[in-house]
Predict the 3D structure of the following.
Amino acid sequence: MSHQPEKSHQQLDARRLLCPLPVIRAQDAVAKLKTGDLLTVTSTDPGAKMDIPSWSRINGHKVIEIIEKDNEIIITIEVNQESE
Amino acid sequence: MEPAQEKQFKEQPIKKQRKAVALISGGLDSMLAVRAIQEQGIHVEGINFFTGFCVEGHTHAVRKKHKDKQKRNNALWVAEQLGVKLHIVDVVEEYKDILLNPVHGYGKNVNPCLDCKTFMVKKAVEWIKEHDFDFIITGEVVGQRPMSQRRETMPIVAKDSGGDDLLVRPLSAKQLPATLPEREGWLDRDKMYDFSGRTRKPQMALAEKYGFKDYAQPAGGCCMLTDENYAIKLKDMWTNRSSREYELDDIIMLKMGRHFRLAPHLKIIIGREEGENNFMQGYKNLMVSIFPISHPGALCLVDGEFKSDEELNQALSLVARYSKGKNDPEVTLKVRQIDATEAEYTVAPMLEGDINKEWIV
């Protein structure tokens, strides 16, 4: 029976940071994760709603969910480290 | 494989896929430069440096005034249009030395453009070595900008950055000596351009050729250091502190609110609108704050200290002026210390004529 490595789910608090810092922090966090891991970024910058999904698309990661709640934008990304 | 095919295959070395990294600012020129190189079969990825002085981002994200503008990072948007990866690099700490000690001095305001461009290309040189890329491209155009993009200064950028002949400027390539990628045949010089001068017409024509309809057109560049009002605030901060050293919060705060220099040791920053007030709330645990409680009004952050009751009263009265109670005889405000202790004061709002023009930064 093959052993599947456990997927991790990291949280990143990017509240109060303004563009492009939420993206930079997400980029740095993703660099430490493996394919299939999840990263949830919480931001208060309205620009993050466009920028984090844009960054994810161009780097081959998948946006799983975007939630807007109480002036916060919560974005969950599934990491893909195998994109060309 | 047929013997003839096999012979041919063995005789032809496998052509290596060449890779370039492009400095992507989010403007049109770098966008065109990338596409020109992509069209030659080169794999391109983008790099963007965050210095803390980017025009877009902070102000657009916070201010309602900019609500008509799409809240997007133009460099990311451009990368997506071009189908290239973008690596955003935080250089805030390293950039301090570039701003504080520019070898080639400042431009019209506090813009160390020549040192800045050299620094960014130098960082790109480090990046291509680390990531096994072959060369660097920028959207620079000969004669486009008065400091870093002059015929005399563009070779300085190439030399001082260590980019030398690995630095390709596709939009002005025909105006410049051939680079290594051209000499090696990775790039066809004839398929690059000879743009020069401040006119934007060739870029706009090329944008049309490439089918780029939507692109950012920053007036005067994308850096706050070229902005006269920002430069005045930065110089005021430097003049009135014992050191020119700064932190990221300092330079972001210069983009927020109305700034009043009441004394060399005291400046107050009053939010101009809800977005700024909300953002400034995040600094209440780092700076003393003042806010009206009898009327709706702006949040004020105190940079420095009150050395007399007169200074405190001036600040209170000014903050009262920017509240809904500005025409009332009295406004009650709270002063909140960093440790969250609060004190209440009631003052008359300052009359417009009593605002000392020299306070306004």
